[in-house]
UniProtKB/TrEMBL annotation, chain A:
It comes from Meridianimarinicoccus aquatilis. InterPro entries: ABC_transp_permease (IPR001851), BCAA_transport_permease (IPR052157). GO terms for molecular function: transmembrane transporter activity. Keywords: Amino-acid transport, Cell membrane, Membrane, Transmembrane, Transmembrane helix, Transport. Belongs to the binding-protein-dependent transport system permease family. LivHM subfamily. This is Branched-chain amino acid ABC transporter permease. It is found in: Cell membrane. It is a multi-pass membrane protein. GO terms for biological process: amino acid transport. The chain crosses the membrane at residues 12-34, 41-71, 91-110, 131-159, 188-209, 221-247, 259-276. Pfam families: BPD_transp_2. One of its GO terms (cellular component) is plasma membrane.
UniProtKB/TrEMBL annotation, chain B:
This is ABC transporter ATP-binding protein. It comes from Meridianimarinicoccus aquatilis. PROSITE patterns: ABC_TRANSPORTER_1, ABC_TRANSPORTER_2. Belongs to the ABC transporter superfamily. The keyword Protein biosynthesis does not apply.
């Protein structure tokens, strides 16, 4: 029974990890950029949520109305003003610059909000649960999982059903030829980062409702997101959800066996899959 | 002589330290079909990439419809009405046939070409429209590449190695479609290995040799000996 419970809870936790991962996957897919600052941007979104709830006195989920467009705007400006200049044949500059960005965000948050752990108050939502037979499922984890599915379905729709998604795929395929189609690749990349950070806003708010956070927790979120992306296979958004779920289940099952093994079990699952399937379970992008 | 739509003045092009073009002067007149020939590595692709903005140059070195575009971004140049059918097709593998065509039309220029017209020109593409572009034969892929460029309703269309790697019967089909493409007043630059074909469809021809123009003339007036000399540099 414990095991069944752990698998169910882990699956729901996987939704959060998929939200961490989706933006990372999108950015890598469109512009081959590995964003080291991704976790810190999630934490930044959580703090923006905190400030919004405090300033406007609204529920954290209502704060999404402010934080999602804010993060999207930050993403667009960040890409056009900074990250576009680092993209080229050499993969090192974007790594170095996003690493630097990670440090800057952490220090800015430390200045602005101090190192004290913070948490967003979502009221009854935090403790509400529904009974499913002998299992008790938290409404918040269920909601998080539903958000993950909705976000990934939405991204999937944008990617495969809209002119913007066509531009993303074309630019990802061949930047030169995409430009000959009249696509300004700097703008396309800006839009991709805007979309990625809009997802990050959802991830950050849900993180900040679920657990307490401080300016230093971004690195861990980056690792979870990164592992989910790799397990699922690069460039496959539904694969990313599967990757998140595998990671979440490994962690909760590990914790059931021994509370100290939670993170370790997740990393081991990641390494095992990486060893067996170096391209992840459902790779779409080769090379 | 009609107004030139494209003028190159002393165009140099570089890959890093390597100079691939040396002071190329060239004009394309309104409505003209111009052929560019030359041995492998002569600089034909480099020339087209410079015109389309994929290689940056000095602004005045490339004039398109009176504007200096040598230093302009490729997407801006595309919006101005210049389209290219690149060497080796270079379709977008993640896009279906129809999507490849539609993305060509996203510059949203007025003109006779649309999805319907492209399907009328190459009916096989309509049958295959939902397929991945990578699943098509080489000839069909070339049709998509041509259709994709036409969807932009360009004033000038450039074909790089239009028949390279295609079966003779396919090449014939593609050339059969050419008058229907350029007949509407569109100007064209055609890079072609098959010299006979190049001379047949063009009004004027340029030959490149090691990055320089080695011959320029009316396609029905240049002699075989002139071309051999211009092509290989033999006396
Ligand atoms: N990306 C590149 N980097 C360096 N040199 C190049 C590159 N592309 C082409 N070249 C060189 O530029 C010259 C002209 O090449 P290209 O324009 O492709 O010739 P063509 O199309 O006439 O065969 C050749 O010497 C070729 O080796
Ligand atoms: Mg070439």
């Amino acid at each position: 029974m414990d095991l069944v419970n752990a698998v169910v809870q882990g699956t729901l936790l996987g939704g959060l990890y998929a939200l961490f991962a989706a933006g990372l996957s999108l950015i890598f897919g469109v512009m081959r950029l590995v964003n080291i600052a991704h976790g810190d941007l999630i934490v930044l979104a959580a703090y923006l949520g905190l400030t919004t709830t405090a300033a406007l006195g609204v529920h954290p989920l209502v704060a999404l109305i402010v934080v999602v467009p804010a993060m999207a705007g930050i993403g667009y400006v960040l890409q056009r003003a900074v990250l576009n200049h680092t993209l080229g044949d050499d993969i090192l500059p974007p790594l170095l610059v996003t690493f630097g960005l990670s440090v800057i965000i952490q220090n800015a948050l430390l200045e602005g909000y101090s190192a004290d752990p913070q948490k967003m108050d979502a009221g009854a939502l935090e403790t509400a649960s529904v009974a499913l037979g002998p299992l008790s499922l938290g409404v918040l984890p269920l909601l998080t999982f539903a958000f993950a599915i909705a976000v990934i379905a939405g991204l999937q729709w944008v990617f495969y059903r809209t002119p913007l998604g066509r531009a993303f795929r074309a630019t990802s395929d061949n930047q030169d030829i995409a430009q000959l189609m009249g696509l300004n690749k700097r703008h396309v990349f800006g839009m991709a980062m805007a979309l990625a950070l809009a997802v990050t806003a959802v991830a950050g708010i849900l993180l900040g409702i679920r657990t307490s956070f401080d300016p230093s927790v971004g690195g861990g979120r980056l690792i979870f997101g990164f592992e989910a992306v790799i397990i699922g296979g690069l460039g496959n958004l539904w694969g990313t959800l599967v990757g998140g779920v595998i990671l979440g289940v490994a962690q909760t099952v590990g914790a059931t066996i021994n509370p100290g093994w939670q993170l370790l079990a997740g990393h081991i699952a990641f390494l095992v899959i990486l060893a067996v399937r170096p391209n992840g379970l459902f790779p779409r992008i080769s090379g | 002589m009609p107004e030139p739509i494209l003028t190159l003045r002393g165009l140099d092009a570089f890959y890093g330290d390597f100079q691939a073009l040396y002071g190329v002067d060239l004009t394309v007149s309104e409505g003209e079909v111009l052929a560019i020939i030359g041995a492998n590595g002569a600089g034909k692709t480099t020339l087209l990439r410079s015109i389309s903005g994929l290689i940056g140059n000095m602004a005045e070195q490339v004039q398109f419809r009176g504007a200096s575009i040598g230093a302009e971004r490729p997407d801006v140049i595309a919006q101005m009405g210049l389209a290219m059918v690149p060497e080796g097709r270079q379709l977008f593998p993640s896009l279906s046939v129809a999507e490849n065509l539609m993305i060509g039309g996203r510059v949203n220029r007025e003109g006779p070409w649309n999805l319907r017209k492209v399907y009328d020109l190459f009916p096989i593409l309509e049958e295959r429209k939902a397929q991945a572009s990578t699943s098509l034969s080489g000839g069909q892929q070339q049709m998509v590449a041509i259709g994709r460029a036409l969807m932009a309703n360009p004033d000038l269309i450039m074909f790089d190695e239009i028949s390279l790697g295609l079966a003779p019967v396919i090449i014939r089909d593609i050339y059969k479609a050419l008058p229907g493409i350029v007949g509407g007043g569109m100007s064209a630059v055609i890079v072609e290995q098959d010299i006979t074909k190049a001379l047949e469809v063009s009004s004027r021809v340029y030959c490149l040799q090691e990055g320089r123009v080695s011959l320029e003339g009316k396609s029905d007036a240049v002699s075989r000996e002139d071309i051999a000399r211009a092509y290989f540099g033999v006396e």
